[in-house]
Amino acid sequence: MPHFTDALAAAVIARRTPVCVGLDPRWDQLPAPLAAAHVDSTAGRAAAYLEFCRGVIDAVAELVPAVKPQSAFFEELGPPGVAALVETICHAQKRGLLVILDAKRNDIGSTAEAYARGMLGRDAAPWHADALTVSPYLGEDSLTPFVEVAQERVAGLFVLVKTSNPGGGLLQDLVADGQPVYRHAAALVERLSAATVGECGYGLVGAVAGATYPAQLAELRAAMPHTWFLVPGYGSQGAGAADVAGAFDDRGLGAVVNNSRGLIFAARRSPYAERFGDARWQDAVAEATRDMIAEIGAEGGARALR
User: Fold this and answer.
1) Are 190 and 115 in contact (CB under 8 A)?
2) Is pLDDT above 90 for 290?
3) Strand boundaries in 83-178, DSSP class E
4) One of 68, 94, 104, 162 is an active-site residue; which one?
């Protein structure tokens, strides 16, 4: 693979969209035929999650540049779930997708390095992730091992800067030395990213910046010109196409916008439930993804890709 962010930029350009599909399998929301085919046990749920995620991947592989499996839903099931996660990652990569593993890891020293070496690197790590979400709140020395492994293995990082959840501001918006904490995190990430820039102008160290705070998202885009954004909060969390417009540069690059429940469980909601139902749940996923691609393509920001 080339430099991770160059590969991501190329994939966004090739698909002509920044949409990223989140893989958040939940037993009580799986399509009825799929759930019925598996025993309700730890191993049975893990097998169902793998089948479901493979089905989602197959439905969107020709439409989007990347997927983002949420590690927690797999880890909840213990070893069978982790095995299903690794197989999900490998299947996505075989279908030509980049994989951002949403595991929000971090620690200090050798422990951070162990996380990085275990998870980061398509060909080198047991978990095979192309990129990983990490927390910055143990300081720069906790990020250094991740950056070093990402450089060594041509992988990427997305550091939590301004998250999409309503309670994030309790700490992230606190003012220290005249600026909110999220701006201090942003300055650190931008510095690390500027030191690892690829041909596309963005570095290996990206930022998580939520669509649910569009003013701050645009503010961070201006403050972080070398940092690629992973933008959660679209769809079920309430954000829409207009909210993410500020995340992009004038080429339509610089961000991928994640949507999980709104896409993968589309068959459970209108208008897709009426058109497809559980029997054609993959068609519902694909159609919902096409609709999101069209929405974002019509609203500033990513319009340049169309």
Assistant:
1) no
2) yes
3) 98-105, 131-134, 156-162, 175-176
4) 104
